[in-house]
Write a structure and sequence with these properties.
Length: 220
């Protein structure tokens, strides 16, 4: 019997965490919020949700999001379930992400990052792909600024003299801005082409028919 030349990639084992901020009077129902986070994770192909939990917080820890005791508890559960990716249903700062990834030994993705991943997976048109790329870069740019804050604090003084972090952040910022400018130009061309095609179709003396339906519903 011939051995298969390739094997289907194993799904990434993920863990969903919903941080419930008890001091927030406008917070969502934690169970419903967690279920929504699990549903978002299930919408991304290649993920296997190994577990989930609600973590109650009076306030987020600035450096790690969770307290030391809770971090150790979660770490044990992640290790026991062979988790590779933790999806946090809420915002996570770059510093918190870096510290949690180092402590837990897994990849961290916050809610915005997960949604961008889903959009990227489902983008089919050139216009859609460009829009997702621009959104991802804008998200990355915001996190980049916050990620370099600790370097600016280390330089001391009054801040009038540029420090080691300032040169790098400006270079990274400029690179992202240049890429965003390039994508905007490409998107403008795509939109213009689409409008020209639409105008051309409007001149054809025949009715336009659209067939809609769910994926694999038999439209072909």
């Amino acid at each position: 019997m011939t051995e298969p030349t390739s094997r289907q990639a194993e799904p990434t084992r993920a863990w969903v965490i919903h941080p419930e901020l008890t001091a927030d009077r406008n917070r969502r129902d934690p169970r419903a919020a967690l279920d929504e986070g699990i549903a978002l994770a299930a919408a991304l192909p290649g993920l296997d949700v190994a577990g989930s939990e609600i973590v109650r917080l009076s306030r987020p820890h600035p450096g790690h999001l969770f307290g030391t005791g809770k971090i150790d508890e979660i770490k044990a559960r992640l290790k026991g379930a062979d988790v590779e990716l933790v999806l946090i249903d809420g915002p996570v700062s770059p510093v918190q992400q870096r510290n949690l990834e180092k402590t837990w030994g897994v990849k961290i993705l916050d809610r915005t990052g997960l949604i961008l991943e889903i959009f990227s997976d489902r983008a089919r048109t050139r216009e859609g792909v460009l829009q997702v790329e621009m959104a991802a870069l804008s998200y990355q740019r915001t996190r980049l600024v916050r990620a370099w804050t600790h370097l600016e604090r280390q330089r001391g003084g009054l801040g009038f003299v540029g420090g080691p972090g300032e040169t790098q952040i400006e270079a990274d910022r400029r690179a992202i801005d240049e890429q965003l400018t390039r994508l905007r130009k490409q998107l403008a061309k795509v939109v213009k082409t689409r409008e020209l095609h639409r105008a051309a179709r409007a001149k054809v003396p025949f009715p336009v028919v659209a067939l809609v339906g769910y994926t694999n519903a038999g439209k072909s």
